[in-house]
C-alpha cells in the first residue's frame, strides 16, 4: 500500500499560536483527506483536498499532488483543537491509507 | 438525525467466540466502510460496500466478514475472535460517487481475551 508519513508526531502549543502539520505520501494519489480525532475518539472530516488550497475558518489545507505532500494550517489555536490529526490518501475514493497522525495539545 | 450509529460501544470476547458489530446510517449514503484503529496507528480499512448487496475487501480483511443486506446497515462479523482483533472499530459512510467527505460513527472498543 501507499506509505503516509506525518510530521511532527507530537506538538504542544500555547493557545493562540499557529501551526503547520505536514503529510508526505509515497505514490501518486487522486484523493486526500484530513481528519481530526478529538480526545474522546470521535473522527471528524476536515477537508477533502486532492489538490489546491481550501480554507474553513481558522483551518486551511494545501495539497501539492505533483510533489506528494499536503499541509494543514491551524491559526490562532484553541484548546478545542487538541486531538490527533490524520492525513489519509488513496488512489480511489474507497481505499484510503492513513498516516499515524500528529498529536496536538493546546495549552490554555 | 443520528448520523452513523455503531452498536455495541464496548465488548469483551473470549478467544474463539463470535460476534457481529452493527453500523446504521440514516443519511441515505451509498458507500459504507469498516476500519480498525490500533494504538498509535492510523485507521486501516477492513471491508467496504458501494451499495446495498455489495461488499469488497480492504487492506486487512482476514478474519472478518461483512454484509450489506439493507442500504442503511453494514454488519461486521468476527467468526472466531482472536486477541489480534483487539482494537477500536470505526464505521464510516459517504453519499456516493463524487463526494468524499466521510461521516464516522463513534467507534466500538473490542477486547478479545
What features would you describe in this structure?
The complex is a heterodimer of chains A (108) and B (113). Chain A is an all-beta fold and 108 residues long. Chain A has strands at residues 4-7, 10-14, 19-25, 31-37, 43-48, 52-56, 59-64, 69-74, 83-90, 97-98, 102-107. Chain B has 113 residues and is mainly beta. Chain B has strands at 4-7, 10-13, 19-25, 31-37, 43-49, 56-57, 65-67, 73-78, 87-94, 103-104, 108-112. In chain B, strands 2, 4, 5, 6, 9, 10 and 11 form a seven-stranded mixed sheet that branches. The interface between A and B is medium-sized, with 22 and 25 residues.
List key phrases describing it.
A: 108 residues; mainly beta; 6-stranded mixed beta sheet; 5-stranded antiparallel beta sheet; 0% helix; globular; B: 113 residues; 4-stranded antiparallel beta sheet
Order of helices and strands of chain B: EEEEEEEEEEE
- The secondary-structure class of chain B comes to mainly beta
- Class inferred from helices and paired strands of chain A: mainly beta
Rough shape of chain B? globular
What is the overall shape of chain A?
globular
Oligomer: heterodimer
* Beta-strand percentage range of chain A: over 45%
DSSP helical segment count of chain B: 0
- Radius of gyration of chain B, in Å, reads 13 Å
Q: Strand-and-helix sequence of chain A, N→C?
A: EEEEEEEEEEE
How much strand content do the residues of chain B show? over 45%
Q: Uncertain runs of chain A with pLDDT below 50, 5 residues or more?
A: none
> How many strands, which pairing sense, and closed or not: the largest β-sheet of chain B?
7 strands, mixed
Mean of residue pLDDT values of chain B: 94
CA distance, first residue to last residue of chain B: 36 Å
What is the tally of beta strands of chain A? 11
Number of helices of chain A: 0
Helix content of chain B: under 10%
Structure summary, number of beta strands of chain B: 11
**Average of the residue pLDDT scores of chain A:** 95
Fraction of residues in helix of chain A:
under 10%
Amino acid at each position: 500500500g501507499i506509505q503516509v508519513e506525518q510530521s511532527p508526531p507530537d506538538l504542544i502549543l500555547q493557545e493562540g499560536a499557529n501551526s503547520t502539520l505536514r503529510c508526505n505520501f509515497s505514490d501518486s494519489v487522486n484523493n486526500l483527506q484530513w481528519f481530526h480525532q478529538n480526545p474522546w475518539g470521535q473522527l471528524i472530516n476536515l477537508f477533502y483536498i486532492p489538490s489546491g488550497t481550501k480554507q474553513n475558518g481558522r483551518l486551511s489545507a494545501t495539497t501539492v499532488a505533483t510533489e506528494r505532500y499536503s499541509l494543514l494550517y491551524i491559526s490562532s489555536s484553541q484548546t478545542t483543537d487538541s486531538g490527533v490529526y490524520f492525513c489519509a490518501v488513496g488512489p480511489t475514493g474507497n481505499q484510503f491509507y492513513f498516516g499515524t497522525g500528529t498529536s496536538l495539545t493546546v495549552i490554555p | 438525525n443520528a448520523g452513523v450509529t455503531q452498536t455495541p460501544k464496548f465488548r469483551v470476547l473470549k478467544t474463539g467466540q463470535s460476534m457481529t458489530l452493527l453500523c446504521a446510517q440514516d443519511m441515505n449514503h451509498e458507500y459504507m466502510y469498516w476500519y480498525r484503529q490500533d494504538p498509535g496507528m492510523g485507521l486501516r480499512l477492513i471491508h467496504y460496500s458501494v451499495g446495498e448487496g455489495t461488499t469488497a475487501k480492504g487492506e486487512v480483511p482476514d478474519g472478518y466478514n461483512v454484509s450489506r443486506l439493507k442500504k442503511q446497515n453494514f454488519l461486521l462479523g468476527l467468526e472466531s475472535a482472536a486477541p489480534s482483533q483487539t482494537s477500536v472499530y470505526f464505521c464510516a459512510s459517504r453519499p456516493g460517487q463524487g463526494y468524499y467527505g466521510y461521516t464516522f460513527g463513534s467507534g466500538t472498543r473490542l477486547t478479545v481475551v
